[in-house]
Specification:
This protein is of the alpha+beta class and 366 residues long. A five-stranded antiparallel sheet has the order 1-2-3-5-4, covered by helices on one side. It has a three-stranded antiparallel sheet with strand order 8-11-12. Helix 8 runs antiparallel to helix 11. Bound molecules: adenosine-5'-diphosphate and magnesium ion (2 copies). The site of adenosine-5'-diphosphate has 22 residues, from strand 1, strand 2, strand 3 and strand 5.
């Protein structure tokens, strides 16, 4: 397994990462082998990894640990973090990876990541309510993170390909100290280019199925139906992410006290919890989401005569449209959230937001 590791893990080429850790020029983080990594207590468990709190050269970090049998997931996630120009305020920071040999001789793979003190967004929403500004800040940071992934970027000789996350949900979004969010868990993420897609770190002959991943509750109707348009992979995979993003925004908005007009806020609910409960089967999700075209409901209290609230509902609906091609792009979602933030502020101040006339991205003259 040592050789497997060496073959798959070339040294990190990223000086940014090394600069962040004050390494000497030419010294790579993997040269350290994360020798200075200290691991303390477990934070949470995900589908493939176990996440621990730790420290690296006196910096607090999160340490994601993968067993030997989850090497593919580790390798895919690491390859995504190591792509050029991936660094972004809303993408979890990556500090390096290493292999450890357990007492029983088996390998485990470690990844040192930015530590987010407020944990996963799902748990945060369960335990907290938000005001309008925080809701907007969270949604804006999430949309900009997805937008950054989706965007192909070139800077000098560096090229960042478009990336689809493929498992956007509130467990794979973390809450930072300032309550902005960062996207994590790139175990299923894919580099995409037109009709070609590149699952990172695996051979062509064990390419994971395009349609076979994600979290059931957040799966787009076309995924549940097995009807993803494979002719334009790049667009299709982005549209699938935007559908899930719509559910995430609904989830964040549902915890926003300003939307309940002083009435007590109901308890946290997962998307579709009211429709399918806590443990839906694939068939139940397919029936509700694909065939009946149901979506999570908006509470009655979210009044339509408030322009900002109406714009918020419209944005969510335009993310989870049944017709994948009619969905917003993640870039557009971010712009809309910024407008929603300003619409609310203008209303609080009792002024008409003239700056939007003619330039608003909302369709109905709002
Ligand atoms: P998996 O691939 O196994 O699903 P994730 O990367 O999604 O693993 O992490 C699982 C959980 O661990 C998250 O839902 C979150 O609760 C916690 N977690 C992950 N990374 C961090 C971090 N950097 N800071 C704090 N908590 C984290
Ligand atoms: Mg996860
Ligand atoms: Mg994962």
């Amino acid at each position: 397994s040592y050789f497997l590791y060496r073959r798959h893990l070339p040294p990190d080429p990223f000086t940014e990462v090394n600069e962040a850790l004050d390494l000497a020029e030419g010294q790579c983080i993997t040269d350290f082998g994360l020798d200075d990594l200290k691991i303390s207590n477990v934070l949470d468990r995900g589908r493939y990894g176990e996440v621990w709190k730790g420290s690296l050269n006196d910096r607090e970090v999160a340490v994601k640990k993968f067993g030997q049998h989850n090497f593919e997931s580790f390798s895919n996630e690491r390859d995504i973090y190591m792509l050029p120009l991936v660094e972004h305020a809303s993408i979890l920071k990556y500090f390096g990876s290493d292999e450890r040999i357990e007492e029983n001789g088996s390998s485990s793979f470690l990844m040192a990541l930015e530590y987010c003190p407020n944990g996963a967004l799902m748990a945060f929403l369960k335990n907290n309510s938000l005001d309008w500004a925080t809701m907007c800040k969270m949604c804006q940071s999430i949309a900009s993170g997805v937008g950054h992934l989706h965007n192909e970027l070139t800077k000098g000789d560096k090229v960042k390909p478009a990336i689809a996350h493929r498992d956007i949900n509130t467990r794979n979004i973390l809450v930072k100290a300032d309550l902005s969010c960062a996207i994590c868990d790139f175990g299923f993420a894919m580099k995409i280019q037109g009709s070609r897609f590149y699952p990172t770190g695996s051979d062509e002959n064990d390419t994971p199925s395009l349609e076979d991943v994600g979290t059931l509750r957040y799966m787009a109707p076309e995924v549940l139906e097995g009807a993803v348009n494979l002719r334009d992979c790049e667009a299709s995979l982005k549209q699938i992410d935007v559908y899930s993003l719509g559910l995430v925004i609904w989830e964040v908005a549902s915890r926003t006290t300003d939307l309940y007009q002083g009435l007590p806020m109901p308890e946290y609910q997962l998307p579709y919890q009211a429709e399918v409960g806590l443990n839906p089967t694939f068939d139940e999700m397919q029936l509700k989401v694909s065939l009946e075209k149901r979506r999570p409901a908006f509470p009655r209290m979210w009044t339509d005569n408030n322009q900002a609230v109406r714009a918020l509902k419209e944005t969510i609906e335009d993310c989870w449209d049944q017709d994948a091609e009619a969905r917003l792009t993640s870039l557009c979602v971010e712009e809309r959230v910024l407008e929603i933030m300003q619409l609310w502020e203008a209303r609080q101040k009792g002024v008409t937001p003239t700056i939007y006339s003619g330039t608003t991205s909302f369709g109905d003259g709002s």
